[in-house]
Amino acid sequence: MPLCSPLEITRKMMTRIFTYHQVMPSYLDFVLVFGSQNEFQDLRVSGFREQVLLAPPERALSIPGFGRSGCQYQLCYNLKSVGEVTPEDGPEVPAEARQWNIRQAAFHHQFDVLEGTAVWIVTESQHDVQDLVKEMAGELLNKDPKAFSTLGDCFRTSLSTHLLCCQWAAGEWRWYIQWIEGLVHQEIRLGNTSAEFRGRRNVRNYTTDNLQNLQFYEDRTKEIGMVLESNVDVMSSLRSFYEGLLGNRDVSLGQGAYNDVRSFAAQVNDVAHDLNVQIKRAQLLATQIADGKRLVLQHLQSQATERIERLTQSSLRLAGETHKMGPSSQKESLLMRVVAIVVLIFLPATFVSTFFSTDVVRYQPVDGSGSFSRLALQMWFAVAIPLIFLSLSAGCFGLLYAKRKQRRNTQDSVEQGNPEKFPGAFQEPGDAVKFR
């Protein structure tokens, strides 16, 4: 849903309206802010323009049939308010899921100081100001059906309309700031309390999302201060214009105009004072958010340090376990070599003994009585000793071949610059690996 909706008027319609009422060109600067857009890009556009024609009018400007004497003043300015976007149907959303929009309205007003005719043109994307003006006009007519019969009454009504616009601009800023304060408190509610008071169970792990949210809230808060300051400037210009209008000798607004302007100026001052209070509140909130950002950043750094320490401790623990396994592996390797040597020695003799016990070679007498045969013993030694020597030679040759192949692979890896395959290849002869 776009934040700003297109105006429900065509260019041709607007041109005819502005031409008929002779709207001052400066009003277009405020109207061009509106349009279909996804983000507010013209919040900095603010101002107050005036055009005063109170000297004896020229004949071209005087049109009695239209209620125009030619002696008039024109004002155009814009103000900004804020409102919560409430869904039409559905359950109530939580505070963090709510949305607030800053709404703009451009006002054009011209008043004929002789005829008492007034023209109001309000450009807004909503119907807030229109509804307020209709309600105010209805109340005035209900109280006094002749509320617009005299010049003084018309002038007083125009001041009331200006005041209504100022009050609309000061409407819900305090609730908007309070909403941001609640969200900021949720982001840093456990960050500004020492661990001994909040307990280990309540220690919160912060993420970069918390930092990004605080940055978003800080931008919103600074935006609030900028918008409120522009509203205060416009209200001050509006008050100063009417105060200066009283000193103009060419203006005769009837009895009571002086008191009406003084009352209007006092009420505008009250509205501006309320906005100044909200400005200070927004500035304080921006300072708190900046402090919260620094605090969250410190927490993120401490959490990263803790993770690094845990990884370091795990690495040291693993290295210690590996170091402990080193002597055990050496013992097992030595034991396997001893077993291999024993097997190489006794396996040929066992084979020869088993072969000589078969019917292939028999030296026992036929009657089964026991006897000793020197020839059989000599034959056993003659066969077993060479086989043992051959098996030991084959084992030694295989061991030497494996070592030579490993040394050749290590040299090839060093020449190719690949130390990862053999980590000890680049170690100096005098170096030693140390473990804590």
From TrEMBL:
The chain crosses the membrane at residues 334-357, 377-402. It comes from the Eukaryota. InterPro entries: CorA-like_dom. Pfam families: CorA-like. Residues 5-188 form the CorA-like transporter domain. Residues 410-436 are annotated as: Disordered. Keywords: Membrane, Transmembrane, Transmembrane helix. This is CorA-like transporter domain-containing protein. The lineage of its organism: Eukaryota, Fungi, Dikarya, Ascomycota, Pezizomycotina.
